[in-house]
Amino acid sequence: MPAIKPSSIRDLKDRIGIFDVVSREVALKRAGSNYKGLSPFTNEKTPSFFISPDKEIYKCFSTGNAGDIISFVMETERLNFVEAVEELAKRFSIELEYEEGGRPREDRSLRQELFELHEFIASYYHEAFHAGDEGGKWIRNYWTQTRQFEISIADEFKIGFAPVGGLELGRRVTKKGFSKESIEACGLFYTRQGINPATMGYRFRGRLMIPIRDHQGRISAFTARQLELTPDDDPSREAKYVNSPETPIFNKSSLLFSMDRARMEVDPDTPFVMVEGQLDAIRCWSVGLKGAVAPQGTGITENQLRLIKRYEPRVRCLLDGDRAGQKAALRMLPLALAQSVEVTFIPLNEGEDPDDLLRFEGAAALDALLERETDAISFAADSIAPSIDSLTPQAKSKAAAELFQIISKADSETTQIEFVKQVAEKLNIDPDAAIRDYRRFSTNQATARRPKQAEKGVQNEPITRKTVHTVERDLLGLCLNEEEIGYRIAQIVDEQWIDTSSLEGELLNLVLNAFLHDMWNGPDSLNDQLDKTELKSLAIDLIFQKPEYDNPERLAEEAIKRLVTKFADQKIKKIKLEIAQKQSEQDFALISLFDEIVKLQNIKGNPPQLE
Question: Which terminus of the chain is more solvent-facing, meaning fewer CB atoms within 10 Å of its CB: N or C?
Fold first, then answer.
């Protein structure tokens, strides 16, 4: 990896705010002088992730992850340090300086090169879409006449066309200098005979090309739509839509099409809209329904719902009106309940799909569609038991059991009971009886899931880790949050009083040394100075959990007294053991040991005061 100059890294951190980096991944809300949101590192219902714009740091209290803009990108995008710095520099148009001999282009990571390669290929496909040849004319006519989209929408989404034949794409890719590894890893070429434009086969030919971007807007794959031009020898000729294969930058179960745009448009009054396909999402965007997203040709997944919840935990489900669309909606519902995502449904009639409705009726169809919106349980009940009046008691019981299975995925018992009451109303059954049946159902489910009892005498209890408030931790908190007191503490605390075998003691020793030798640059500089992740996390913990100090000077003196007492007691105990040994040996050095005990007792009784 090339070495980036430290001065260049400092400049990058000075010019990029942590809010601008983190807000691309997390929906942030102000919390005093900080911002908070749902953790990007784990699935949670209550926000435990905080950033401090003043100190340019973040802290996730559910996982313990903490750091600055570089470590955040490293964690969320699984990059090493240099890759993360280069990604930030590219994202914010900052030029990096490398140490002599550094070769950033040749040494860039495979992931970074794959993003660059996909962007390059997307530009080629988009150029072919606008070409003046027969293929270009045909695809533009298809886009504007058959699909009835504006050319400006094609430009906005960088829609492209994969030519039926020719070697031009392979020539351009190799001429540009992309590595053999990236060309093979992208999955867009068949390279059995080597990286040679004349022998490489192309995965996509004669298809409409839709770039798939991750939630940060980087092209990571393509969806290719079948056309009349798709050649008969295409191995996937009969497939209407074909995705890129999975690669180091593309996992279809973790991405949502158009999430990079939609996440900027949603808020508590404007939820996401889930549609079935990419062209549905593009159609929604073109008529003003900006929060539309689509899965990648598969059912919605837990990862995709977690991604949605980061930005807005509400979604409208607008799927095709056929039986397959209805089944997809029912599969999505329990997953959404488990992730605490609130789902409503806009049911379409048999044969309807969002693209057709919005294509022919335009934005005027939006109001009519929203009038059909229904809550999750009503939609599920109508799907499972569409003819309630004709149901027998046994059929109602069976329908209720199916709905109970969905309801049980909700994470709140209160929510579950309210849903059961809705089911009772929809199925026209007694609500109290429905609640009793549901509780019996829940008990049976819990019994079925319960693991076999451990062997007698062996208990499987969870291990609870609690923060131990040592005197070193208390002094460290004062030093980090009350710098003037920190300088004064450093003048009187002896290094040998500190238990440096603990993280708190190790960090306190480093901080006091910085104060003592006039090398302290503020707590936000610690992230650069510390090598251990645990020390960085501890420092950020103490900064975020800053208490209100009524009298920091008095607290400091009390803490110093405790520190001295602890040190002196431990030392006296050790000396007394040594005296006992030497008495049995008739050692004549006992007098000096007794003198040391007197000194320790004296410092215990008269601990140093702040100057």
Answer: C
CB 28 within 8 A of CB 37: yes
Does residue 568 belong to any structural domain of this protein? yes
Same domain, 497 and 574: yes
Distance CA 312, CA 308 (A): 6
293: left (phi > 0), else alpha (psi -120 to 50), else beta?
beta
d(CA 413, CA 419): 10
Indicate whether 213 and 323 sit together in one domain.
no
Angle at 382 between CA 378 and CA 386, to 5 degrees: 155
Sort 172 into a burial class: Cβ within 10 Å, 0-12 / 13-18 / 19+.
middle
The whole-number pLDDT of residue 169 equals 93
Minimum mean pLDDT range among 157-161, 218-222, 424-428? 424-428
Return the residue matching tokens 């540009």. Answer: 176
Q: Encode pLDDT of 315-353 as tens digits.
A: 999 877 667 777 888 888 999 998 889 999 988 877 777
> Terminus-to-terminus CA distance in the chain, angstroms?
49
Rounded distance, CA 250 to CA 538, Å?
Answer: 34
| pLDDT per position as a tens digit, 412-456 | 888 999 999 999 998 889 999 999 999 998 888 777 665 544 444
pLDDT tens-digit readout, 199-213: 788 999 999 999 999
Q: State whether 92 and 198 are in the same domain.
A: no
Q: Are residues 96 and 210 in the same domain?
A: no
Q: Regarding beta strands 314-317 and 272-274, do their DSSP bridges make them parallel or antiparallel, or are they unpaired?
A: parallel
DSSP reduced 3-state for 189? strand
Both 238 and 114 in a single domain? Answer: yes
- Looking at the fold, whether 529 and 481 belong to one and the same domain comes out as yes
Total of domains in the chain: 5
507 contacts 478 by C-beta, under 8 angstroms: no
**In this structure, is residue 253 part of a structural domain?**
no
Q: Cβ distance 99 to 2 under 8 Å?
A: yes
Structural domain that includes position 349: 259-372
* Residues comprising the chain, all counted: 611
